[in-house]
Design a protein that fits this description.
By secondary structure, this protein is an alpha/beta fold. The protein is built from 9 helices and 9 strands. It has one domain: Rossmann fold. The structure holds adenosine-5'-triphosphate and magnesium ion (MG).
């Protein structure tokens, strides 16, 4: 198994609090919400930053957590670790049948936090993510972990996350504050709903301090509306 060390993130106190708040909100969604998809409308709204910090935060409280980087086109999770040379295999190797599950799994400095990196960019990301091996990985992970955080490509831009949505128990839409229109977010929410994946909430990211909470704001107004 691969072994990786994440760079320390010196998060300001308030940001740490927001991540804890997000963690608590996810826990309160119930223990049937284990596999959670994180997506957005466009690139760079903050999905990967948030899922990584959330995974660390869940591990800190002793939850067994698996973070899967399913953004096969534009992954940058590897930049967050100090020993990139240790990561030889990723999700695209596993999905294409070149590696088995144990080979693509990476253990972190926390013994309860595991990661699957994206691997090299394949020619057919959407098709690969829809294959039976992805289902098999999630089925296996459900038995091993308390939470499986699925970091994905922006659903408003590429279709990849739609293949994952039916296999997840719920989803969260990351929104970069003051950048994305309500109409666009509603479109993403509708796609998730159509795929049978309830939207548990939205995470408003990159919020200006003057607007209230400094970093992550989240509310769960979609929760009832999109419940299965
Ligand atoms: N709350 C924040 N405040 C300031 N910068 C942030 C915040 N959240 C994320 N960023 C920065 O924004 C950039 C994009 O973040 P990140 O890679 O997490 O987004 P992403 O949605 O995963 O992007 P992609 O669609 O490319 O995968 C990074 O440089 C990250 O450090
Ligand atoms: Mg990302």
């Amino acid at each position: 198994m691969q072994k990786v060390t994440f760079k320390p993130h010196e998060l300001p106190y308030q940001i740490n609090e927001e991540i804890k708040y997000l963690r608590a909100n996810i826990q309160f969604c119930g223990d049937d919400k284990k596999v959670i998809l994180f997506t957005s409308s466009v690139a760079s709204e903050g999905k990967s930053s948030i899922t990584l910090e959330l995974a660390k935060s869940m591990a800190q409280m002793g939850k067994r957590v698996l973070l899967i980087d399913t953004d096969l086109r534009r992954s940058n999770l590897k930049h967050q670790i100090t020993n990139r040379e240790n990561v030889k295999l990723g999700l695209s190797h596993y999905l294409s049948g070149m590696s088995n599950l144990d080979e693509v799994l990476a253990v972190t400095d926390s013994p309860v936090m595991y990661v699957v990196f994206a691997g090299p960019v394949p020619p057919n990301p959407a098709e690969l993510l829809a294959c039976k091996r992805m289902t098999a990985m999630l089925e296996w992970a459900r038995k091993q972990f308390d939470y499986i955080l699925v970091d994905s490509a922006p659903l408003g831009t590429v279709i990849d996350a739609a293949a994952l949505a039916p296999q997840c128990d719920g989803s969260a839409i990351v929104i970069e504050s003051a950048k994305i229109s309500r109409h666009t977010v509603q479109g993403v929410a509708q796609q998730l709903k159509d795929a049978g994946c309830p939207v548990l909430g939205v995470i408003l990211n990159k919020v200006e301090k003057a607007h209230g909470r400094s970093y992550y704001n989240h509310h769960y107004e979609y929760r009832k509306e999109y419940k299965k």
